[in-house]
Amino acid sequence: MKLVTYLFENSEFIGILKEDNTIVRIPYFKDMNTLIEELDNEGWEKLRVLKGKEGEISLSSVKLLSPIPHPRQDILCLGLNYTDHAKEAKQYSNEAFSSDKAKAIYFSKRVNECLPDGGNIPAYEHLTHRLDYEVELAVILGKDAYDVKKEDVKDYIFGYSVFNDMSARDLQTEHKQWYFGKSLDGFCPMGPCILTADSTSYPPELRISSKVNGELRQDGNTNMFIHDIDEVVAELSQGMTLRKGTIIATGTPKGVAMGMDKPAFLKKGDVIICSIEKIGTLTNRIV
Q1: Per-residue b/e over 171-200, b at no fewer than 16 CB within 10 Å?
Q2: Contact between residue 215 and residue 92 where contact means Cβ atoms under 8 Å apart
Q3: Helix, strand or coil, per DSSP, at residue 103
Q4: Which residue among 45, 65, 85 closes a domain?
Q5: Which letter does DSSP use for residue 52 in this model?
Q6: N or C: the chain end with fewer CB closer than 10 Å?
Q7: Alpha carbon 162 to chain centroid, angstroms
Q8: Share above pLDDT 70 across residues of the chain, in percent, rounded to a whole number
Q9: Residue 232: helix, strand or coil by DSSP?
Q10: 202 near 158, Cβ under 8 Å?
Q11: What is the mean predicted confidence (pLDDT) over 244-268?
């Protein structure tokens, strides 16, 4: 099922998005964070009952928010997790993006608020002239994970969403680390929904793509990960507790602006559409 957070008559609700673009409100939890943290077997059964009901309100009558507007923690990210993207990044800056692929590259991304589908991304012209996009599969955990074995990771996945790992490449490379260049306000668009893990095969093999002003830039599949979801969750959980609701951005395929022969970095007015099969599209404009 697809879960959404939305505004209706100036109040925030969560709901189930049905195939006919209507929404069934979920009354049992105040927000998506609470749903993920408190959902048990009885709660799942209640959601399945709600899924079978007719939609109460049309999608066109509400304003969609990011499914998790305010995550409890910074977002965990993987760098250079698709082979061809690793190559294009190294070509852009060998010093900043060199990797032997043997070990996953992890970094975190500050998030005060996740932008929704339709949200505007600031251009930050006073800070950066190399604004870039990265479509990624966001993996959301549904259970606290500590010392998890690879073969058990599947049971810890709550669902998936579309994520755009916005980056200021000049800040990213000048500071010799990635945190500042990836953490400006508005650099965490995510949406339009959460696709629950039971709605697709595991591990997910989904087409993932991005367009800028209608031009196809990235086109790959989530079966192309160098370090897959099982490996990542198992490794991180060996010495670090990953709480319910943790969001892991799993890396991006080739085709980002910095990888082009003549890098076409984003500017005001540009529209980025990030898409993942079965989940949906995430559209944002640079302002």
Answers
A1: bbbeeeebeebbbbebbbbbbbbbbbbeeb
A2: no
A3: coil
A4: 65
A5: T
A6: C
A7: 4
A8: 94
A9: helix
A10: no
A11: 95
Per the CB < 8 A criterion, the answer to whether 206 and 277 are in contact is: yes
> For residue range 119-171, what is the model confidence (pLDDT) as tens digits?
999 999 999 999 999 999 999 999 999 999 999 999 999 999 999 999 999 99
User: Does a structural domain hold residue 70?
Assistant: no
- CA-nearest of 157, 181, 184, 185 to 250 is 157
Mean pLDDT of 270-284: 98
pLDDT of residue 175: 78
Tally the domains of the chain: 2
| Separation between Cα atoms, residue 136 and residue 167, nearest integer Å | 13
- How many CB atoms neighbour CB 264 within 10 A? 16
**Residue where one domain finishes, among candidates 11, 39, 65:** 65
Sheet holding 215-221, edge to edge: 120-121, 280-286, 271-276, 207-212, 215-221
Six-digit token string for 209: 């793509």
* CA distances in angstroms from 231 to 86, 119, 283, listed in the order given: 18, 33, 30
Q: Output the average pLDDT for the chain.
A: 94
CA distance 97 to 35: 38
